[in-house]
Amino acid sequence: MLTEGREGGIEENAESRLRIAELNLKKLPRKAWPSVLCRGEPMCSPKGEIIMDVLSAIEGRKSIRAFKGDPVPKELIERVLQAAIQAPSSSNQQPWRFFVVMGSEKERLTEKLLKACKERLLKYDPGKGKTIPQEYVDKTRELFKDIRTYIQESRKPIKDFVEEGSYQFYHAPVAILVAMEKCFPRSRLVDIGLAAENLMLAAHALSLGTCALALILACEDVMREELKIPDNLEIILGIALGYPDTVSPLYQFKSSRDELKDIVAWKGF
C-alpha cells in the first residue's frame, strides 16, 4: 500500500516495500537490471515477481541482529515459509514443522526465556564443554572480536549481548521455531537445515532479515510449554524474522568466511 507523505511524495510502509521495488526497477532499462541484482538489492519485475538471482541472494544474506519494530505482513511470512518447504528432503518425507510467534505471544515467550536463562545461570559456551576442536572455538572468538566494535552503544559484554539477544530474538517482530518428529534419525537434520536456508534466502530477497538461533534450545522446555508444542516434536532451530534496522551500526556487520583453499580438497583435477 502506498500513501502520500507530508511532502506529497510516496511514503513507505511494510506493505508497500515490494511495490516500491517494482517501481524502482521500472525506471531502469532492462539491460541495467543485472548490475542492480549484482549488488544484492531485492528488486521486482514489472509483474511484481522477485528476480534477485540465487547467487546474489546467497552472497547478500547475513545474520541480522538489529530489527525495526515494523510488523511483517502475514502474506510475506507465508511466502518465506512456502520457499522453506520447497527444500529437498530424504524420500520427500518433509519432516519439518514450523511455529510462528508474534505480538503478545512472542513478548510472553521472550520474557519467560530470559527469566529461565537467568534462573538457570545459562552461559554461552563456544567450546561446547571443550568437546570440539580449538580451531572452531577460535572462529567464534574471532566473530566476537569483529562484532564488538558494532555494539559499543549497548555497553554490554559481547556474551551478554549474544545471550540476551538470542532469547529475545534480537527484538525481531517474528519468531519462527523449526521442529522435527523425534522419531527421525539425526541425519534428517540436514533436511531441516535445507528448509531453514531456503527460508532465510527468501526473506533476504523480500527485504527481510533473519538470524538463526540455537542458544534458545537450552530452554526447549520453556518454549514447549508456552507454545503447547507436542511431545513428539523436537525443536531444532529458532529464526528471528523482521525488517533490518539499516540505521543501526550493527547492520553493517557481516561475519567472515574461510577461503576455499582451506576447506576444499580437489581430486582428479
Written description of the protein model:
With 269 residues, the chain is of the alpha+beta class. It has helices spanning 17-26, 33-38, 54-60, 74-84, 103-119, 134-148, 158-167, 189-205, 220-227, 260-263; strands at residues 3-4, 10-11, 96-102, 174-181, 209-213, 233-242. Strands 3-4-6-5 form a four-stranded antiparallel sheet, with helices on both faces. Helix 4 packs across helix 8. The longest helix is centred in the middle third of the chain and has 17 residues, at 103-119.
Strand order of the largest sheet: 3-4-6-5
Q: Which spans have pLDDT < 50 for at least 5 consecutive residues?
A: 1-15, 33-40
Q: Could you spell the SSE succession in H and E letters? A: EEHHHHEHHHEHEHEH
Question: What is the total domain count?
Answer: 2
Work out the strand percent. 5-15%
Mean pLDDT: 85
- The counted number of beta strands is 6
Helix proportion range: 25-40%
Name given to the CATH architecture of the largest domain? 3-Layer(aba) Sandwich
Largest sheet: 4 strands, antiparallel
Structural class: alpha+beta
* Number of H/I helices: 10
Shape: globular
